[in-house]
Design goal:
By secondary structure, the chain is an alpha/beta fold. The chain has helices spanning 12-24, 35-44, 64-71, 85-92, 105-120, 133-145, 156-165, 183-193, 212-218, 231-256, 266-282, 297-304, 306-323, 346-362, 388-404, and strands at residues 4-8, 28-32, 50-54, 76-80, 98-101, 125-129, 149-153, 169-175, 200-205, 223-226, 287-294, 328-333, 336-342, 365-367, 370-372, 376-382, 410-412.
Length: 414
């Protein structure tokens, strides 16, 4: 279900821009051009995920619409053409998500970032560590407005315990001056477990010590904010670091994923398979390592075109994920795939692979008004004590035998 965005704005040109931004992010957009229209909407529907609020409306020139929308529990981003300090303070004294001056086109790019992260932040944990209840609560409240899952700790020791239990935490915001374990010591302990690609650490301090920022960054933190801080700066820093973590995940996924089938690629498979096989061997869990290849794949490409061939590769990958739910899968290249499959015994693993083979052989795959049938050949090695490279070679030899012996079958490596 799409999330609802309320756009409160009397300029049709700006409404058009914000509406396009909202819809591009998957929001269902409603529009109110005055405070009266807002109040009418609130009588029938307050289930809005967020709102953008024009500060000056024809019937509410001094920001009255802000309080009205916030009173219904709707998070709001204020858009304003006023830049004076009094207006800014009046806006930020209320629990808004943020405010954006209508200066230029960059204002709308920033709004798009905010609306994107309001949704994307859901499920991302942030741990706030401070021995001051007031400071903890203030920072926690700011983070909750941006839809983070917030955890709080009053000491470094408590923070480490929370980190052990909660695997959704991607950011730690820690005070530097705390009894027992201070923020620098806590950062050192965090970096023993989590690198910068996995977790962001931000130090905060109200102490008048010019060396603190350098000290905590040299000890593994990613940033430093001096208290008391401006909420706008706080949000800008937090968003920037969340974006950095998100971009790292995207880069890692691109490096480890086959672009066509979205299965892991050869590199990712080797990394995961080595760990899995070591675990299976240690715990005496039977497993099979299989190589799978589409029969007469060149004929599919020659007959129906390369788009059809790509479609078949995608369909095979989807069916592998559906049928072999416990397996580690990968596309090695071309029409060749790898499967690492644990099971109760060799017979059960073989049965799973054979059921999958039969399902593919009996299916018809529709593409561009054509119904395409194809089969697969499989070579498998069971519980080998050889290296992963040797096991893959053994499975590949068995696969070649399956091809030579008529295709559409499984051959076990001997």
């Amino acid at each position: 279900m799409s999330k609802k965005l309320l756009v409160v704005e009397d300029s049709k040109a700006i409404v058009s821009i914000i509406k396009k931004i909202g819809e591009s992010l998957g929001y269902e957009v409603s529009i109110a051009e005055s405070l009266a229209e807002v109040e009418t909407l609130m009588q029938s529907n307050t289930e809005y995920f967020a709102a953008t609020i024009d500060y000056a409306l024809p019937d509410a020139e001094n920001g009255e619409a802000i309080a009205t929308i916030l009173s219904h529990g709707i998070p709001g981003v204020v858009m304003t053409g006023k830049m004076d300090d009094e207006t800014r303070k009046k806006i930020l004294d209320q629990p808004v998500i943020d405010y954006i001056p209508k200066e230029n086109s960059q204002a709308f790019m920033y709004l798009k970032r905010i609306l994107y992260w309001q949704s994307a932040n859901i499920g991302t944990g942030v741990l706030v560590v401070d021995d001051s209840v007031t400071a903890r609560n203030h920072i926690s409240e700011l983070l909750k407005r941006r839809n983070f899952t917030v955890y709080a700790a009053e000491s470094g020791v408590e923070a480490l315990k929370i980190l052990q239990k909660q695997n959704d935490i991607k950011m730690v915001i820690t005070d530097l001056e705390m009894p027992g374990m201070d923020g620098i010591e806590l950062t050192n302990e965090i970096r023993k477990v989590y690198n910068r690609d996995q977790m962001t650490v931000i130090g905060i301090s109200g102490a008048d010590n010019a060396t603190y920022s350098a000290r905590i960054i040299k000890n593994g933190a990613d940033d430093f904010i001096r208290k008391p801080f401006c909420p706008e700066e706080f949000y800008c820093r937090i968003t920037q670091h969340v974006e950095n973590l998100h971009n790292i995940v995207k880069i890692q996924k691109a490096a480890n994923t086959d672009y066509l089938t979205e299965l892991p690629n050869r590199r990712a498979f080797f990394k995961k398979a080595r760990k899995s096989i070591a675990y299976y061997a240690e715990n005496k869990i039977p497993y099979g390592l299989a190589m799978i290849d589409i029969d007469f794949f060149k004929t599919v490409n020659d007959t129906y075109g390369h788009e059809a061939g790509d479609h078949i590769l995608k369909m095979l990958a989807e069916n592998m994920e559906k049928c072999l739910t416990e397996a580690s899968l990968a596309r090695f290249g071309g029409e060749e795939f790898a499967i690492l499959l644990p099971g109760s015994d060799q017979a059960a693993i073989y049965q799973q692979l054979d059921v999958f083979r039969e399902k593919i052989a009996s299916a018809q795959f529709n593409h561009d008004e054509h119904y395409i049938n194809f089969t697969v050949s499989i070579g498998v090695v069971f519980n080998s004590v050889s290296s992963l490279e040797d096991q893959l070679n053994q499975a590949d030899i068995a696969l070649y035998s399956a091809k030579e012996n008529g295709r559409n079958q499984i051959v076990i490596s001997t």
